[in-house]
Amino acid sequence: DDGNAILCTAKNAVAEDTRTAHIKVVDKPDAPYDVKLIPGGVDEVRSIMLRVQLPVYTGNAELTDVIVDLNAVVVNMQQSSKLAIDFSNFEKNGTVLLYTISSGILPYTCYAASVRLTNDYGQGAAKTSRIVRTEEAEPTSGPANVSVRDIDATSLLVTWLPVPLASRNGNITAHQVSYSSPHHTSRKRSICYNSKCFLESQQRIPVSEGLSVELRDLQSNTKYRIQVRAINGAGYSSWTSVDHATKDLDGGSSPMPFTPPPGYNILGAAGMKVDETHIPAPTGTEITFAAGPASDENGPVDFYRLLLVDMGRVKNVSKLHP
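^ thats the sequence. predicted structure below, dont judge the formating
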């Protein structure tokens, strides 16, 4: 027992004398009574609070260190790190020790800790916590390999690859596709994989089929900027962008941006604006222009193309041969 006293008495015919010796039994400490990991502390995503409840018996000696084996499951791999934390660095509340681990903590990652107490005599047995998972964070990169294929002159098929596992930082629940041209404001389509999707204009499809979308009712002969981003419970990834021009209505490839021929004029349509791709012309308007050179460094001029556009839609296409 701790603190037992042993009395030693010396005695002869004349007198006697007594001395007392106190014995202190020192041993390794027992395992912690309880160990918990609590996501949060300084940062709910990238820090974990370690809570250790001390045992009744600490080896009759002052504790010097707390040895922590922190195990993480990262992208289907097991990673382990060992921390030797000086006992004085813990926040103490009675028999409970608190310490925030923030170095190397990853979002949306499962962790478990095995804790041993140390005194001057040695290291005690371990106590292991339950597994916890840190909170989600925004994806750190966007979808990969965004590509666009023509379906017809006014429809495109957009496909992409998933965000790499190490960059997801959570459970990807949706992708969002944005598409715009110089003549249209940006429009978005959201593709969701579960009932928790909260986005507007959403289309729910299985995740196994969720890496493509068809964009319809587009404008022919128009260059579009198409962007794709991933969404998890914490927010959005960055956009992955690609530019693609829709085909001509007659099935040809998309033309170069329109440059009006010399002497271009719209009669009876004061104030009409010529943009870089189309010539908007109301019904019945006469359009005249002076023909340019018959050829240039790119070759001979085969024909001029006249587009009639109504409310952003191509209504008619005419070819004017020199």
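Helices lie at 165-168.
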